[in-house]
């Protein structure tokens, strides 16, 4: 950044005008956006899907290693991921931020560059928000709206016994990216002269800092003309989300360690840190992949999609939730999600 | 409070279940609520109105004199006020909070008691949200959805030359309540033994801590079968909002000091603090009254409503925005809203 403009020099309304000056609507349903008491959305004949998430500095992100542009992008994407997880199409977002004076207008511009990049990538409209002062950290709250044909949304509760359990993409990468960046931060704080060693780690760092929402999977369902029986996005870790699906659907499940999709770069990173790649895949959060169940007769429809892995199947509730390891052992799945990791 | 339950003893999902266990939907359009990735709303044939607001501890509220139940109530009401200000009917809200460990489950129950009381009073459904940890203060983010018949929403930009400027209720009370509570806080911090002197101040304190949104005014428009030409709610102060309406409508305005509605209790409180009641009405924020303009020919329709005051009229833009004082002077209106007050 070459120059620094104080937020106070623009004032609250000047700042909002500045940050929202270039919005162009992508959706016909966006009738009225930023600049009035509320925004207007028209979803005639479609159901509106609503999701909201809050991101807090020091809890969900660390500005020491999170570029603001990536943070803006990610804060949109994590909300869109929830909309896709309902089998819906995101159409609008509102973005509220609380910032302290340590941020310049240029810093907020970077953040919003990321916000707008995500809006453009996913064809959603920013239609409102709130910008206020924070005495302490940076807090971001995003609400996403989407639309779905009546009755076509997919809940967590619809899985049936025998359904195949599937995940998109690969798992554990974001957690390994976090582990790496936390290690580099610690080294930097102790030895400021040491340069970070991020070579060959682009994949896991990218998984943490710039996740994408699985729009492609939702489009694939539409193209293949079938629906999962249940679905959710993996934000807290596969174990935790599997327990949500089984509990909401009143079933048990079996998954297979050898079927868990782990990227080769994530596997290498895990070994480097002395971590078990399977534990990272089970308990690492923030991958924003989709976890869903399908009827066995729909297996043919997904088998050629390399972005989808079948990892197990749903069982009677009495059987509980278990993983079969490569060594032939069976372990009960417990919720050791993201939060557990962070609190250790 | 007799007992204290640590939030950590419930865990995030246990806490959400605990706080949302008793939700019963009031609106047929609320299809699916808390407990999945997103909520589903059905607004067939109506337009969806969306508004969002963030409230930050130490900036928007002081927990030293704000009961949590009132805070929960107010955090809903300020959002509903924005929906009414579009001439729409609020139907759903999402509520996200970031809290530190200093809050017990019992404290959050109090907060949510207020949230649910507001939901019941205004017949809106809580359909989603996010609950997360804060390292520092309490942050609340609410998004409200509402509905309106297509094309019936009222923007800030619709005022025309000659339109009458109206406000609901009375102004300045909330600012005087804040002034009073800030004074009592200061006295308490300096002399903890001194008991607060809030006798005869219920009105102004109530205006700050438990504001109501003007649902009655929107219903009145419907009953009288006419629409304002422009409207917004008064959250930052009358001066600031008048400048928004005139700027968005590309007009000027004249208002009359003697027409400004100030409650007798607020007037007395102002005198007690050596403040000008008119300055409080112009620049004090958080009254959550409605500011709107109507065609002159609609004057008959509002004249008998004691909750509506005509305070002036819209002029050519060249004339700017002015107030005629009781003494016969004319002053330019400048934006000295809430924020300006707080920064002094």
Write the layout of secondary structure elements.
The structure is a homodimer of 344-residue chains.
Chain A: H1 11-20, E1 30-32, E2 39-42, E3 47-56, H2 68-84, E4 89-99, H3 105-122, E5 125-133, E6 139-148, E7 164-168, H4 173-190, H5 202-209, H6 215-224, E8 230-234, H7 238-249, E9 252-256, H8 264-272, H9 277-283, E10 289-294, H10 299-302, E11 308-315, E12 321-324, E13 330-332, H11 338-343
Parallel strand pairs in A: 4-5, 9-12
Antiparallel strand pairs in A: 1-2, 3-6, 4-6, 7-10, 7-11, 8-10, 9-11, 12-13
Distance between the termini of chain A: 36 Å
CATH superfamily of the largest domain in chain A: PurM-like C-terminal domain
The coarse overall form of chain A would be: globular
Structural class by helix and strand composition of chain A:
alpha+beta
**Quaternary organisation of the protein chains:** homodimer
Largest interface: A-B, 67 and 67 residues
Mean pLDDT of chain A: 90
N-to-C series of helices and strands of chain A:
HEEEHEHEEEHHHEHEHHEHEEEH
Query: Which strands sit side by side, in order, in the main sheet of chain A?
Result: 8-10-7-11-9-12-13
Residue share in β-strands of chain A: 15-25%
Kindly describe this structure.
The structure is a homodimer of 344-residue chains. Chain A is globular. In chain A, 35% of the residues lie in helices and 24% in strands. In chain A, helix 2 (68-84) packs parallel to helix 3 (105-122) and helix 4 (173-190) crosses helix 5. Mean pLDDT of chain A is 90; it is low at 337-344. Chain A has 344 residues and is an alpha+beta fold. In chain A, strand 4 (89-99), helix 3 (105-122) and strand 5 (125-133) form a beta-alpha-beta unit. Chain A contains eleven helices and 13 strands. In chain A, the strands form three sheets. In chain A, strands 8-10-7-11-9-12-13 form a seven-stranded mixed beta sheet, sandwiched between helices. Chain A has two domains: 7-148, 60s Ribosomal Protein L30, Chain: A, CATH 3.30.1330; 164-343, Alpha-Beta Complex (Phosphoribosyl-aminoimidazole Synthetase, Chain A, domain 2), CATH 3.90.650.10.
């Amino acid at each position: 950044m070459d120059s620094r403009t104080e937020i106070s020099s623009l004032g609250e309304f000047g700042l909002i005008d500045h940050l929202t000056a270039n919005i162009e609507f992508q959706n016909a349903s966006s009738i009225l956006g930023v600049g009035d008491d509320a925004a207007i959305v028209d979803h005639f004949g479609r159901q509106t899907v609503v999701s909201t998430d809050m991101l807090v500095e020091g809890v969900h992100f660390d500005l020491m290693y999170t570029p603001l542009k990536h943070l803006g992008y990610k804060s949109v994407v994590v909300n869109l991921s929830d909309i896709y997880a309902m089998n819906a199409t995101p159409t609008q977002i509102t973005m509220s931020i609380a910032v302290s004076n340590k941020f310049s207008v240029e810093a907020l511009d970077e953040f919003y560059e990321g916000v707008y990049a995500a809006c453009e990538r996913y064809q959603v409209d920013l239609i409102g928000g709130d910008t206020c002062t924070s005495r302490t950290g940076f807090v971001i709250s995003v609400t996403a709206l989407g639309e779905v044909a009546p009755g076509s949304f997919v809940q967590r509760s619809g899985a049936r016994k025998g359904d195949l359990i599937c995940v998109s993409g690969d798992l554990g990468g974001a957690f390994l990216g976090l582990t790496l960046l936390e290690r580099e931060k610690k080294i930097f704080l102790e030895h400021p002269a040491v340069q970070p060693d991020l070579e060959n780690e682009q994949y896991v760092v990218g998984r943490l800092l710039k996740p994408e929402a699985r729009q492609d999977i939702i489009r694939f369902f539409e193209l293949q003309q079938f629906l999962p029986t249940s679905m959710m996005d993996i934000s807290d870790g596969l174990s935790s989300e599997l327990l949500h699906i089984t509990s909401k659907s009143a079933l048990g499940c079996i998954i297979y360690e050898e079927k868990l999709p782990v990227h080769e770069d994530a596997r290498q990173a895990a070994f480097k840190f002395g971590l078990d790649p399977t534990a990272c895949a089970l308990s690492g959060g923030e991958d924003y992949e989709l976890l869903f169940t399908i009827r066995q007769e729909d297996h043919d429809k997904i088998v050629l999609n390399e972005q989808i892995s079948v990892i197990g199947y749903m069982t009677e509730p009495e059987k509980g939730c278990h993983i079969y390891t490569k060594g032939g052992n069976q372990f009960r799945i417990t919720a050791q999600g993201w939060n557990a990791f962070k609190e250790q």
